[in-house]
Amino acid sequence: MRVDQPFVRRSAPLSVQRGGEEDQPLVMIVDDDASIREALSELILSAGFQPVSFASTRELLDADILDRPGCLILDVRMPGVSGLHLQSHLTENGIAKPIIFLTGHGDIPMTVQAMKAGAVDFLTKPARDQTLLDAVTAAIAIDSERRAEAAIAMRNIKRLETLTQREREVLHEVARGRLNKQIAFDLGISEVTVKLHRSNVMHKMEAASIGELIRAWETLPAQMRQAGAR
């Protein structure tokens, strides 16, 4: 990994950041132009964000920091893997990192491609400082929201794993809006047994109401919700 040293000296080295500031968002800048990296890093620092910069997408991937909170500022055309190819790579690997494209070589088809793939913004160099900072602020907010949703989903997945198969079946039916007597008929069990299973489900899922239970259910991955029917 090569991080531009002038920018690291303005703040704690990355190794220190990883040890004590794991939750601090990083603005990851990837541009093959050293002067652009310097200007962007100075701007990001001036706004109170933490920049870290790379001369290529390969350097970024080798740094293994994409799991950190934050966003990416990517040039589109660079030696090796381009910014658009990196966007595709991240999407294919399930890495939902907000991306801001900043390029001197943009065109309408390229912009449309990037935005359809989920880019936060597509800016042309030289971009206004405030425009770029607004995009960074929005991207970090998107990343924060995604992380919060992922944490809730993971919490509910762990709770779901404590349910028995029958309890999962009952949960699936409750989430469908089925009444106890309907669930009992469908599963071939008594209504009293359904009530017992439902009570156990709410306890294990830590839901105080059916509404909370259904909201927890909706945070689960689709394949897990479908599996509950079997």
From TrEMBL:
Gene3D superfamilies: 3.40.50.2300, Winged helix-like DNA-binding domain superfamily/Winged helix DNA-binding domain. It comes from the Bacteria. InterPro entries: CheY-like_superfamily (IPR011006), Sig_transdc_resp-reg_C-effctor (IPR016032), Sig_transdc_resp-reg_receiver (IPR001789), Tscrpt_reg_LuxR_C (IPR000792), WH-like_DNA-bd_sf (IPR036388). Residues 26-140 form the Response regulatory domain. Keywords: DNA-binding, Phosphoprotein, Transcription, Transcription regulation, Two-component regulatory system. The modification 4-aspartylphosphate is found at D75. GO terms for biological process: phosphorelay signal transduction system; regulation of DNA-templated transcription. CDD domains: LuxR_C_like (cd06170), REC_FixJ (cd17537). This is Two component transcriptional regulator, LuxR family. Residues 156-221 form the HTH luxR-type domain. It holds the Pfam family Response_reg. GO terms for molecular function: DNA binding. The keyword DNA damage does not apply. SUPFAM superfamilies: C-terminal effector domain of the bipartite response regulators (SSF46894), CheY-like (SSF52172).
